[in-house]
Specification:
Layout (H helix, E strand, L loop, with lengths): L8 H24 L16 H7 L2 H34 L6 H13 L2 H14 L6 H25 L4 H8 L4 H30 L2 H6 L7 H9 L5 H34 L4
């Protein structure tokens, strides 16, 4: 067995510079969110002042609540539709229009968000729909459904179909076999897909800016409008809270994905 070579000094330096380039700005933002000074670039000691300012800012709280509502709603709808689409593509027979359906499902993965947002805006204008919570939710569902479908379809592709066949041999109909055998095995992938959709919705700015309306601004839109007038220390506190929330969601999604993979490896054909 070939031994793994040690990392050279050049590789270590390159890795350190790469990590610093990615995470040092985030670390500085987190540190300065505890800055007591009103000036963003001047350190004035440790303080939770700007976190108190955020929780007393009614407009920011309403925007954060709107973002959470949109993220939870769109992630739930996207998970349901994405899972059904993944099952249709993985378990369904070849049907007419399958290639077109697959292409339309995965189009948001490669399409620029500006084009997606503008297309949805034109659709809502043509339907004379009042832009607000539901238009943003529908837009985010369109964006995130394809990510859920990719995660769930990948998990379905690694499952042994003989497990379902054995359940049907024992008297289960296809629906019962799917609910009793397949669904528990792909549940971690579904959870991971939901969390990925939740994170993408919570972080979106471009599509939400096209589809939002008066009184329904999300937190990224509110932060962007504040930053254009100058960065306030309160923005650092808000961003730190968002980073912490997204980090927790990503960790849980990673654990769910690893659990899904381990269950797939341990599942033996009957």
């Amino acid at each position: 067995m070939r031994k793994v070579s040690r990392l050279s000094r050049f590789n270590i330096a390159s890795l350190a510079l790469g990590l610093a380039f990615l995470y040092l700005p985030i670390l500085i933002l987190v540190i300065y969110s505890f800055n007591a000074s009103r000036l963003v670039t001047v350190w004035g000691g440790w303080s939770l002042r700007w976190y108190h300012e955020f929780f007393n800012d009614r407009a920011m709280i309403e925007a954060a609540w709107m973002s959470l509502r949109v993220a939870v709603s769109s992630a739930s709808i996207a998970t349901l539709l994405g899972t059904l689409a993944a099952v249709a593509l993985s378990r369904g027979e070849r049907f007419r229009g399958r290639t077109l359906f697959s292409g339309m499902l995965y189009a948001p993965l490669v399409m620029p968000e500006v084009i997606t947002g503008l297309s949805l805006l034109l659709l809502f204008v043509a339907l004379n729909a009042e832009r607000g919570f539901w238009t943003v939710t529908i837009a985010h569902t369109t964006l995130t459904m394809c990510f859920v479908a990719v995660v769930v379809q990948s998990r379905l592709g690694s499952l042994d179909r003989s497990l379902e066949e054995a359940a049907m041999d024992l008297g289960c109909n296809p629906v019962c076999a799917f609910a009793a055998v397949t669904l528990p095995l792909i549940a971690p992938a579904i959870v991971a897909g939901w969390m990925l959709a939740f994170t993408l919705s919570l972080d979106d700015l471009v599509i939400a800016s096209f589809t939002t309306g008066p009184g329904s601004a999300t937190l990224p839109i509110r932060i962007y409008s504040e930053v254009r007038l100058g960065v306030k220390p309160e923005i650092n506190a808000i961003c730190t809270l968002v980073i912490g929330l997204i980090a927790v969601v990503i960790v849980i999604a990673s654990l769910a994905s690893k659990l899904s993979s381990s269950q797939g490896e341990s599942a033996a054909p009957l």
